[in-house]
From TrEMBL:
One of its GO terms (biological process) is L-threonine catabolic process. It holds the Pfam family Epimerase. One of its GO terms (molecular function) is L-threonine 3-dehydrogenase activity. Belongs to the NAD(P)-dependent epimerase/dehydratase family. PANTHER family: L-THREONINE 3-DEHYDROGENASE, L-THREONINE 3-DEHYDROGENASE, MITOCHONDRIAL. Residues 6-235 form the NAD-dependent epimerase/dehydratase domain. It comes from Pedobacter kyungheensis. It comes from the Bacteria. Gene3D superfamilies: NAD(P)-binding Rossmann-like Domain. This is NAD-dependent epimerase. InterPro entries: Epimerase_deHydtase, NAD(P)-bd_dom_sf, NAD(P)_epim/dehydratase.
Length: 320
């Protein structure tokens, strides 16, 4: 039997660090190669690590053939806010990266591919509350356009070549192990670091900006559960809506304030406000629940408690 051999591309990023760890636990540390354009970090410290630019298709193909890769997790991407600063580069990285992976996976007859999409595929024309799975929408950012187009490419490779590519539309992800970079939802991570360090935070989104969010342990579990689901159960071959919680900056601030008494939250909205205003308030993930029994575990209270406990522990460890 063909043993699972995994390649995680973008392994040093916010999702990559934790997903690489989870996949190593599941398949064994020598069955998972971490790859990133960056120098090694947590994902590459101890085990297999390759420096890889996903837009270099011949290197990707060579690596997959030499290592007999059977599954790719493609996490390398430019997010919404950085993408608006350099739309051409965002398009090139996000689209060329995906097309290279799909093509190489098909050529190497891989078992499965995972690729994350985002709530950024939805624009102002989509219903803001409980945004349904199948809603033709006009994204407001280059990042959103690349995710919407990427979803169609995943569908195309599945239909045309039978490539088992699976995808989730992630909301804003909150984590303590590794920081996000370049997203509109990043405030929901930054706020914890500033609350603990300074007791205050200057938020780049204004009060009342409701956005869908998810704690990283739920997100990692969602990827593993989706990838384990029987192929015949999966009716969505673009990307699944996924939901856990929704909140505004002031609601998150108030919850943090329950743990850090005199926490102060101020606001100075910037260009990211316009992006956030086009995204849904909440997401309907009915199809994910029905098809592969998705259920989130962390709500706002549990997430805030866990984030603060872990960040406090990590700060005292680094001081010791
Ligand atoms: C971003 O803010 O760009 C991302 C996302 C919602 O996809 N976190």
């Amino acid at each position: 039997m063909n043993k699972t051999k995994v390649l995680v591309i973008g392994a040093c990023g916010q999702i990559g660090v934790e997903l690489t760890e989870a996949l190593r636990q599941k398949y064994g540390r020598y069955q998972v190669i971490a790859a990133d354009i960056r120098e090694k970090n947590k994902a590459g410290d101890h085990y297999l690590y390759v420096k890889l630019d996903v837009t270099d298709k011949s290197k990707l193909l060579m690596l997959c053939r030499e290592e007999r890769i059977t599954q790719i997790y493609l996490l390398a991407a430019m997010l919404s806010a950085s993408g608006e600063r350099d739309p051409a580069l965002a398009w090139q990285l996000n689209m060329d990266g995906l097309l290279n992976v799909l093509d190489v996976a098909e050529k190497c007859e891989m078992d499965k591919v995972f690729w994350p999409s985002s709530i950024a595929v939805f624009g102002l024309d989509a219903p803001a509350q409980h945004t349904p799975q199948a809603n033709a929408s006009i994204p407001s950012t280059v990042y959103g356009i690349s995710k919407a187009s990427g979803e169609y490419w995943c569908h195309y490779y599945f239909e045309k070549y039978g490539l088992d590519v699976r995808s989730l539309r992630f909301p804003g992800l909150i984590s303590y192990k590794s920081p996000p970079g370049g997203g509109t939802t990043d405030y929901a991570v930054d706020i914890f670091h500033k609350a603990l360090a300074d007791g205050r935070y200057l938020c780049f989104l204004k009060p009342g900006t409701m956005l869908p969010m998810m704690y990283m342990p739920d997100a990692i579990r969602a990827v593993l559960e989706l990838m384990d689901a029987p192929a015949e159960k999966l009716r969505v071959r673009t990307s699944y809506n996924l939901s856990a919680m929704s909140f505004t900056p002031e609601v998150l601030g108030a919850e943090i304030g329950k743990h850090i008494g005199d926490f102060k939250l101020d606001y100075l909205p910037d260009f990211r406000q316009q992006i956030a205003d086009t995204w849904p308030d909440s997401i309907d993930d009915y199809d994910a629940r029905v098809d592969w029994a998705w259920q989130s575990r962390f709500g706002l209270k549990e997430m805030v408690r866990d984030m603060l406990e872990n960040l406090t522990r990590m700060t005292s460890l680094s001081k010791a």
